[in-house]
Design goal:
The complex is a heterodimer of chains A (200) and B (169). Helices cover 42% and strands 18% of the residues of chain A. Chain A contains eight helices and eight strands, in the order αβαβαβααβββαβαβα. Chain A has helices spanning 3-13, 25-34, 49-59, 71-76, 80-87, 118-125, 136-148, 175-190, and strands at 18-21, 39-41, 65-70, 92-98, 101-102, 108-109, 129-133, 153-158. In chain A, α1 packs across α2 (25-34), α1 (3-13) runs parallel beside α7 and α3 (49-59) runs parallel beside α5. The radius of gyration of chain A is 16 Å and the shape is globular. With 169 residues, chain B is α/β, with parallel strands linked by helices. Helix content of chain B is 46%, strand content 20%. In chain B, β5, α8 and β6 (153-158) form a beta-alpha-beta unit. Chain B is globular, with a radius of gyration of 15 Å. Chain B starts with a helix and ends in a 5-residue tail after the last helix. The chains are: A alpha/beta (200), B alpha/beta (169).
Chain lengths: 200, 169
């Protein structure tokens, strides 16, 4: 299974979910598949997309929040799994694109190359729903159930590493513009107030 | 005698804070436990301080006012995330931090960060405000609004004198 194909399947099944994407491959592939402004694409804080998604999920408990994480980002902050499990956010689904390499920087091997079972780590942290999916047809088959089940859930998408550097281009906006596009999109969709009457 | 913990909690309530994420330092631990007991404020215990920063940042986009609580050492561990998440995207995050390493904090393991925390904030251009006396606690709503207006991390320091009283170190 290729990362771009797996993410395209996620995008087709996202329904009303708001997505938070770890920087690099996860963000770029999600942008390529969805072009969505009601998604937040991390450009830094590697390892903390999970925490950002948790804060969003706790703040909008009626809104499904999907975290599109990546193995490199998860490894930088495995403690996030303890925090997520402890909060029990029913609306939060955590997906990890596991290609075993740091794709964005040319495909260098991940720490503990090939020996890490992220779903087992998540179960040990307290996730009652954690699994690994290795094939596209299996992902198609399981995803409706994953989308419908209560969170927090944890799903590893084991994909093939690509050759060389990441080639999928990033989203065409960044920084403050991303903040305002994302915040305004959530205001429109959910009738919430992210920004005050003077715009900040 | 003012109950400092209750007064700070009261000011956060006035600010509309509904979520707090924390990793304890012993100076802010009583405030954290008071917040944890407040069923109007969602409390998230984290495994490292930068998680609190990112949780509060996510909450901002859910329209929820949030605060991150930690010690000065924890603040130093967050500088990369504060820069690449909050500065990059201009996301306000309000941090309540014990001002460890001050001249009345006679703990050798706090000394190094004590001399460097504020210069570091100045380099990053993060605003901060020191609450040293119970009467200063009423400034918290102004500090919170300043954080939102300046659209960046804002550190509210609590001094030893404030949280421990005038007792000797």
């Amino acid at each position: 299974m290729r990362a771009c194909d797996a993410i395209e399947v996620l995008a087709r099944h996202r329904g009303d979910a708001v997505a938070v994407c770890a920087l690099g491959m996860a963000a770029n592939e999600w942008w390529a598949a969805t072009r969505s402004e009601d998604s937040f694409y991390m450009h830094g804080a590697m390892g903390f997309a999970a925490s950002f998604a948790l804060g969003l999920a706790l703040s909008l408990p009626q809104v499904p929040v999907w975290l599109i994480n990546a193995d490199g980002s998860l490894c930088m902050n495995l403690g996030c799994l303890l925090t997520e499990a402890s909060q029990g956010a029913k609306n939060l689904k955590h997906f990890v694109v596991d290609n075993g390499v740091y794709q964005t920087v040319g495909g260098l091997p991940m720490v503990n190359e090939g020996r890490t079972d992220y779903a087992a780590i998540a179960r040990a942290a307290g996730f009652s729903r954690a699994r690994t999916i290795e094939a596209l047809d299996e992902l198609e088959r399981q995803l409706p159930g994953i989308a419908a089940e209560d969170g927090p859930s944890f799903t590893v998408l084991r994909v093939e590493p690509e050759q060389g550097f990441l080639r999928t281009p990033p989203m065409t906006y960044e920084g403050p513009e991303m903040k305002y596009r994302f915040g305004r999109a959530l205001e429109r969709r959910f009738g919430i107030q992210v920004f005050g009457p003077q715009g900040y | 005698m003012v109950d400092v913990t209750a007064a700070i909690h009261g000011e956060l309530t006035k600010c509309g804070v509904k979520l707090a994420a924390s990793l304890p330092d012993d100076w802010v631990a009583p405030l954290i436990e008071r917040i944890a007991a407040d069923n109007q404020m969602r409390h998230v215990r984290v495994a490292r301080e930068a998680e609190a920063v990112a949780i509060c940042s996510g909450a901002f986009f859910g329209g929820v006012r949030a605060v991150a609580l930690m010690g000065a050492t924890g603040l130093l561990t967050c500088t990369g995330e504060l820069a690449t998440l909050n500065l990059r995207h201009q996301i306000p995050v309000f941090l309540i931090v014990s001002q460890r390493g001050s001249i009345d904090d006679h703990r050798i393991y706090q000394e190094v960060q004590g001399r460097r925390t504020i210069p570091l904030l100045q380099v990053y251009d993060f605003p901060y405000h020191v609450v040293d006396r119970p009467a200063d606690i009423a400034s918290i709503p102004d500090a919170f609004e300043t954080c939102r207006m300046q659209k960046r991390p804002f550190v509210l320091f609590l001094t030893r004198r404030l949280v421990k009283g005038e007792e000797t170190a």
